[in-house]
Design goal:
The protein is mainly β. It contains 1 helix and 19 strands.
């Protein structure tokens, strides 16, 4: 309790399996705008791009399901990092997953996750040439002004490639929200 970040991965290849993150939401030691305040924070390299990878969860939930409970943000990634997030549970979050600043040909896969009692399930912001696949997630009983999937600032200079299919989204204000 009272941590800013549970796991911080800077320019690294990291796999995170079988953990429980709870109450990671404090910004007592640093102002909110200066730190990611996420259970898992990963940052790639600006330039030249290097293919670092973050894997959170496993295709077999018996081997690697992570749970995130009452955290400001569950998983936050930025700056050109390949990401696979699969079979995790997010409860009582401000944002379950936040993906931003993938300006090169990175890939992001967010599948088979469960979100409940949260404000935003998945938020993707300014991801340039990144190919993002969001599928087979369940979002139910979301919180205040709730949004299931938010795709924001789709770049006109780059070709953002988002595929959002076969998700179950219930009791939200915005199911899938896309804005440039």
């Amino acid at each position: 309790y009272g941590m800013n970040t549970g796991i911080s991965c800077i320019e690294s290849n990291v796999a995170v399996y079988g953990n429980h993150f709870q109450n990671i939401l404090s910004w007592l030691s640093q102002p909110p705008s200066s730190y990611p305040h996420a259970a898992i924070y990963a940052k790639g390299k600006s330039f030249p791009p290097v293919n670092y990878t973050l894997t959170v969860g496993h295709n077999n939930p018996l081997l690697g399901n992570n749970t995130f409970t009452h955290c400001l943000t569950g998983i936050s990634t930025t700056t050109n990092i390949n990401t696979s997030i699969i079979n995790n549970t997010f409860t009582g979050m401000n944002k379950g997953i936040y993906i931003t600043a993938n300006f090169f040909t990175n890939t992001v896969s967010i599948t088979k996750n469960t979100f409940s009692n949260s404000r935003i399930g998945i938020h993707c912001y300014r991801n340039g040439l990144c190919a993002t696949f969001i599928a087979n997630n369940t979002m139910n009983n979301m919180g205040l002004a709730p949004t299931g999937v938010w795709l924001q600032e789709l770049s006109s200079k780059f070709v953002s490639n988002y595929t959002v299919i076969n998700n179950v989204i219930k009791t939200v204000q915005y199911g899938i929200r896309s804005e440039n």
